[in-house]
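Forgive a beginner's question, but might I ask you for the amino acids of a protein and the tokens describing how it folds?
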Amino acid sequence: MSGIETLHEKKTKYFDIIIIGGEVVDGSLAPRKKLDIGICGDKIAEIAEPGALNDSNAKTINATGKIISPGFIDSHTHDDNALLKAPEMIPKISQGVTTVISGNCGISLAPLIPKGNLPPPLNILGPKSDFTFESLSQYILAFEHAKPTINTAMLVGHNTLRIAAVKDLTRPANKTELKLMQELLEIGMKEGAIGFSTGTYYRPSRAADESEIIALAEVISPYKGIYATHMRDEQTKIFKSMDETFETAKTAQVRVLISHHKCASPDVWGRSAETLALIHGAQKSQEVATDVYPYNAGSTILEPEYVDERIRIFISWSEPHPEMIGRDLSDIADDWGVSQKEAVERLKPGGGVYFSMDEEDVRRILSDPTSMIGSDGLPNDINPHPRLWGTFPRVLGHYCREEGLFSLETAIHKMTGLTAAYFRISDRGFIRKGNFADLVIFDEKKILDLATYSNPKKIACGIDAVFVNGSLSWLDGALTGARKGRFLKHSHR
């Protein structure tokens, strides 16, 4: 049915699903428009003026008074293992996410079968026993067997590569180790990875020098892969870290994405105007973008060096002290009669939520044209940050509707078309004839995140329906049973 002609008047055509009555916001920044959409198989077969599509055999969905947008693309996730262990992916599909980018912050489930202990932060994905994939192709087979409800595209993580290849993680890789990492990364790119991520903030990669990262980033350059980085420092050395990021990407000739851009310390609160100015300056000579989550708190592993007693930290998980989950670190330290750093030593391995950002910085970065939306949620946390369940409705409900930070068209662009274009995810992110039918129907007056820090696993309101590859997968607050997610291999175009 690829030869369906443009419909200028009411005619009978053959569709599986027809969506009528809604206002289409297509992901491109174009103004909303009332249009009907015909779906055939996994594709958008036709987009037409209201009333122009007619097929008595098609399932008709009435979206009158609602917005129809492309499926949201979560640019920053740690869903590698969740896609296999919890393939229903309720935290994501319930908020309209149809595609996730996994393998961020230098942390990917593949390629790695650990020989020794599994050092943090890889344990945010799961236990050592879950790292069973020597190659990305093996992971893809497991993904296809699990049949998740949503799509994924994957980055290969630098921390993962270093653990697989480098004997002493306190030093840069030697020539032999670097060659092995390059080979593993090249195999991953050939097997369909979309790029390479770093997390030099974390110990397994902290000792890597710029030359090591450049040598790896150069591997992805011929494939037109993306380099995503959790920089070395988002605090007092943020400007130095940004300079390193720009220079690494320019030398390797790759596009770069600064992950979860923020000014993550009271010492640099208010300086996002300066960091964004640096980004805009770099964009004159190279491709640079950022992702951001709509909260003034982040979440990561517990380490004494991350403790700043000027900010609130509460415990999202703790292996030796699960009874402390959900409590503030300061209260735990007081109860134990120790410093917060000592309390963290007792609590780890574990994770925490760190209230390390200023709201005005969050708003400024969110509204910047360079920023796309990524949740950075941690699905393995027992008491996770609410961003896991609420990021996208929060952008639309709180920041767009309630705060008026940007238009609905801009908000959706940041969650769809901008992300698809920068990651070179073909035929998704825009409502266009011939694109895959990843779609969300939502009520712009009601959509809102309900997940909170004290109750983080609450489903957002206002999402009426979600389609993944043409299949209605979420309807009226519940799964339909359709699990049509796909592993999106990079086309290397």
Observations:
- The two ends are 26 Å apart (CA to CA).
- The first helix runs from residue 82 to 85.
